[in-house]
Each structure stands twice: as C-alpha cells, then as structure tokens.
Amino acid sequence: MLQHGPKRPLYVPLQNILTKSQHQNPSLINQSLSQESTETPQNSSNHCSSENKYGHICDLLLSQTRSRSLFKGQQIHAHIIKSGLQIIPLVCHYLINFYSKTQLPLLSGQVFEESERKSSTTWSSVISSFAQNEEPVLALQYFCRMLGENLCPDDHIFPSATKACAILGRCDVGKSVHCLVIKTGYDVDVFVGSSLVDMYAKCGDIKESRKVFDEMPQRNVVSWSGMIYGYTQLGEHEEAMRLFKDALLEGLDVNDFTLSSVIRVCGSATLLELGKQIHGLCFKTSYDLSGFVGSSLISLYSKCGLIEEAYRIFDEVPDRNLGVWNALLIACAQHAHTKEAFDLFKKMECAGMRPNFITFLCVLYACSHAGLVEEGKEYFALMKKYEIEPGTQHYASMVDILGRAGKLQEALSVIEGMPTEPTESVWGAFITGCMESRSRNSINRLKRGVTF
C-alpha cells in the first residue's frame, strides 16, 4: 500500500493543481440521479459472499451496454436498487461501465458514491468513465482520492490518469503521474508505458514521448501508434513515416489508430498516391470500416480536392463516431458546401450524435465563408443547449462572421462580452472586418483601447 501524508510530497503538486481548477466540481455528481434507494439488505455478508450468483444481472447489463439501450439499462438499475444488489462490487462495476458507455459519466460517479464497498475494480471503472467521457478533471480528482485512501493504482488506472492529463494538455500533471508510475514499478508495464508515450505526444512534448518509447522493454501497437501520432501532430511527416515502416519491419500488426495517423500524414502533406496505397491496405484488413480510419480518409481526400470521394467514404462507414461526422463537416466547410454542412449537422442531431466544440467550429466556419450572419448567430446560441462553453476560436469565428458583414459594432460587443481576455485571433478577425469595411473609426478605437 502507498502511504499518503505530509512525508510523501510526491502527490502534493498534483492535488494543488487540481484544487485550483475551475472545472466541474465532483459534488455536482450528487445531483445526477433524482431517485435514491433507502433500502438496506438485511444481511450484507450473505450478499457479499454470493457475488457469483449475480452473474445473470451482470450479463443483462452487459447486453444493454453493448446495445447502448439507456432505458432498458436503467430498468435493470432500478431492479438492482430494489433488490439491494447495489452493494455487490461486481454489480457496481457493470453499472458504472454501463453509464460510461452510454456517455453519462456523472451517473457512473453516482453509482460509485452510493456503493458501500469500493473495490479496486470500481475505482478503476469510475476513473476510466470520467477519462473516456471528456471529464478529465473529475478523473484526476478521483485518482487523488484513491491515493488518499492508501490504494495503489494499477495497470488499468494509470492509463486513465494519463489520458486525463492528455485531454487537459497538462504535461506538468502528467509528469507527477509518471513519477508515481516509476515509484510503483509500473514503468516496465507495456500498457502503462504506451499510455505515457501517448500522453507526452498529445501534450506536445515529443522528446519525452520518444524517451519513454525508446526505454520501453516491450512495445505494442498502442505505443507505436502514439509515437507516430505525436510526430504527425508536429508536422514531422518523414519521421512519422519512418516509424511506420519500422513498425511493419518488426512484424507489428498495426491497428486502425496506427493507420489513421499515417493517413493523416498523407493528408497533411497532400501525398494522394501514398494515401491511396494505405487506403488499399485498410481495405484488405477491413480497417476501412473503422471510424478512426474513416475520418482520416475523409480528411485526406478533402485536402487533395476530391470532395466527392470524401462523401463516398462517409457513406461507407457503418459505425460513424463523432470524428467521422466532424471530418465531413470540415470538408464541407472547406469546399464551400454550406448547405451540405447544415444538412449534415441536422442529420447528426437526428442520429442522436451529440456535437462538440469542434462541430460548432465547423458550422461557424461554414457560416463565415458563406456570409450567413443569422445562421451563425443561431449556431453560436445553440452551443448553450449542448452545455458547451464557447472558446476563443468560437468567439473569433463569430467576430469574423459579423466583421465580414460590416456589423462591426456587434462584433465589438461580442468581444467585450467574452469571459476571458480576447486573444490575437479574436482581434485579428476584428481588424480584418475593419479593413474590409474600411472603417477608420473602428480601427482608431481599437488603437486607443488595445495594447499589443
């Protein structure tokens, strides 16, 4: 067990960073469920000693998890509460996983909080639920809580913690987790090591990512893919392709994430012929049906000017994740297919797909280049419905839409209403609007009010 206290300062920086966060507070989890059970089983020990008898309940939950059937899954949850089975750690694990897969991480947290016995499996499940569903701060807060209870993370929990760090882009927090990985001896574990490679790459620290990669005693497809992805993101296409060739020479069975990263290299460098060859490899291995590969192929053909091919790829992907929808939205916006972009957004909503901040950037970009002011305002306002806080890029897009239409006073009002200081991209959009409108008054006002 790990000791947690003032003599072990390793965890203090991690906790300090998290407590300063302005993200969602875990106390909100307590408001997630409107109904709670007040029943307590008469004999808890009998229930706990008979966990293997509840396999059928777990099987039912697993079935609803696979089918993403929220209503039926919650009916099973109600039965579990009524029967007093929520004290069984195995049942809790399946419940947490069910809400995780149905993209309701706060309900995963509620199940965890209501469980009387918190096993290492339930800790792992709830931390994973937060990390997988874009709640990185909660994932790390629960990770710290677990450390505070003298529980040692394992090869399942560490990757969730590093994923949370990657989402936040917090390399400093990731290094604290990395220190703990070394202290507990999990640095030799291939899954934990691969997650560190991926975390450093996504945080932009390619040197540290490569250092971890080179020191790994054993590498798997995740570590190779993470390394290739890191070089791709930095635009180091030659190194990314060299690594891909090395992976093939070592006989690595590449997966859809690996192929997706390589296709992105081809798209960024507009290497159409090479991209087609990789596409052929995807077809042979059936990875062309993957959402990861599909989104990359859409991006490749769009960047190479083959928008119709991008549409065809979209139609052929059977299980479209959000990345696939966003990839085609970006393609539509870049090729001035504004009507198609709007229609695609509606189809996405009808399919039950929840748009994210990238989705709204795409439609705002389409509105900007088509000069559609009212539509832009509607999409910007729609972000509140989906509880998405506009970022600086969204504000810059909105300012660009208004500026291009000559509505400089409205654009300035948007800037003044920003919750944070306007960035260079926001002011750049405003200046562009002033230049296009030849508004000397607005430019002079900008000079008086802004210090660069």
Describe this entry's structure for a reader:
- One of its GO terms (biological process) is RNA modification.
- It comes from Salix dunnii.
- The structure is a single chain.
- The protein contains 26 helices and no strands.
- It is an all-alpha fold and 452 residues long.
- The protein has a domain of 93 residues.
- Helix 7 runs parallel beside helix 9 and helix 13 packs parallel to helix 15.
- The longest helix has 14 residues.
Concise summary:
The protein is built from 26 helices and no strands.
Topology:
Blueprint: H1 12-19, H2 44-48, H3 55-67, H4 70-83, H5 89-101, H6 105-114, H7 120-132, H8 136-148, H9 157-168, H10 171-183, H11 190-202, H12 206-215, H13 221-233, H14 237-249, H15 256-268, H16 272-284, H17 291-303, H18 307-316, H19 322-334, H20 338-350, H21 357-370, H22 373-385, H23 392-404, H24 408-416, H25 424-437, H26 440-449
